[in-house]
Write a structure and sequence with these properties.
The protein has 266 residues and is of the alpha/beta class. The chain is built from nine helices and twelve strands.
Length: 266
């Protein structure tokens, strides 16, 4: 299991890492005093649990929790703090645990057991889903066998989100650029960048074993909904859904252009 710890206080962070290192099932624990460094780490590393301080100067732990879930929805968050009054707000942000400092080994072990129970429940729910599944309610992610696909370029992931938002309609490169880049000119530099992003999208999907999710004909692209499941399609078709999959007022929340589509679910 890989975890990260974020706390701006040097010695508190060191003590937490030392406590966690005593637990055999945690193979790797990485500490960060700067929240931006932690977020960059999450973009290229699979992390099961993030232990976050709540009271930090650059960004509160509650704010950091939201950003972590945008980057890596599968990463569980446990707050570590000296302030018990923030517990309710923490759980509103979908944290799985709330530990008071100084954090004891026994308390961490309890949170690991809680995490494993939640994982078993999630696995049971995910086993009923298709192999390929697009999650659009809340933040957007594309899953293969319950694991979120990692894209080396964030724009490649956004292009896929845009195609899925269009519900199978063919979109030209210019159409995509106009929305995702807000670029009406579509000049040579934009076209060149589009080529790189679309190539990266293809490469990422092929690496995940999902090469046929996006179809390509000439200058147009489309998401092939016969090849994957999607929460908003299930919702629009009235299919029974787990509570965690239902619409709760947010749709592809990391993309401003997606706000225009939210009316479909309200």
């Amino acid at each position: 299991m890989k975890v990260i710890c974020v706390d701006d206080e040097k010695y508190v962070l060191s003590d937490l890492l030392e406590t966690i290192s005593e637990i055999p099932e945690i193979q790797e624990a990485t500490g960060f005093r700067e929240v931006q460094e932690a977020l960059e780490f999450l973009k290229t590393n699979s992390v099961q649990i993030a232990f976050l301080d709540i009271d930090m100067p650059e960004m509160t732990g509650l704010e950091l929790c939201k950003k972590i879930h945008e980057i890596s929805p599968v990463t569980a968050v446990v707050f570590t703090t000296g302030y018990p009054q923030f517990a309710l707000e923490a759980f509103k942000n979908h944290a799985i645990g709330y530990l008071l400092k100084p954090v004891k080994k026994e308390a961490v072990l309890e949170e690991l057991e809680n995490y494993k129970k939640l994982q078993k429940t999630a696995f049971a729910e995910d086993s009923q889903k298709p192999k390929f599944y697009a999650k659009t309610f809340g933040s957007f992610d594309f899953f293969v066998d319950g694991v979120a696909v990692k894209f080396t370029r964030s724009k490649a992931k956004e292009f896929l989100a845009f195609l899925i938002d269009r519900q199978g309609s063919a979109c030209s490169r210019k159409d995509i650029a106009a929305v995702v880049f807000e670029d009406s000119s579509y000049d040579r530099n934009t076209q060149s960048y589009m080529t790189k992003i679309l190539a990266d999208l293809k490469k990422s999907l092929e690496a995940a074993g999902a090469p046929d999710i996006v179809t390509h004909s000439g200058d147009t692209y489309a998401a092939d909904f016969t090849k994957f499941g999607c929460d908003f399609i299930d919702y629009l078709n009235g299919k029974p859904m787990n509570e965690s999959d239902q619409f709760h007022g947010e749709y592809m929340s990391q993309y401003s252009w997606a706000e225009e589509s939210i009316y479909k679910f309200e």
